[in-house]
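Appendix B. Raw example, untouched.
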Amino acid sequence: MSDGEEARKLFCGPCDFAWGTGDIASLPPQGLPETAFAGRSNAGKSSLINALTGRKALARVSQTPGRTRELNFFNLGGRLMLVDLPGYGYAKASKSLAAEWQSLIFSYLRGRANLKRVILLLDARRGPMDVDRAVMELLDKAAVSYCLTLTKIDAAATPERDSAEAAAQAEASRHTAAYPEIFSTSAQKSLGLDALRAHLAALAGFGL
């Protein structure tokens, strides 16, 4: 069976909500390898998780940026834990609340020995922004491996998308903890999902 077929098999299998918490002291026990999805508020984290797993409402999609305030863990076939992190950089969030979110997120990122990679999402219509670069620098300092993944490529014109991909590639090359490959996806149109599934499946031990 090819790596792609292994990945499809994994993501077509069971995936269930396992844990949710807004308190770093009540994280689930470390066990399965984990991959965390991070990004600006409304970058499409929950939509991408739903699309990757073929579900419509596994991860809750909010129309209000900054609404998700918990870390939500989803058990993928007993092989990999997908972690939906609260968004960052929402302008209307109070400074104290934004600081609370950042503390929660980065306490998690620094403290999970089984965290294999962060999938850092960038809206293809905007590309890397200053707040994304700040997060990348923090991940570099924490030595947490991450890969940049463009979302909503169906909503970007071709020149806009090409520019965002080039900017993401250039940005990744400047950061020590960034994975060199860039992924481009659309949850709405199911674009680029197989490549990202294969990447995640490899982290779970498939194809290695």
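End of appendix B.
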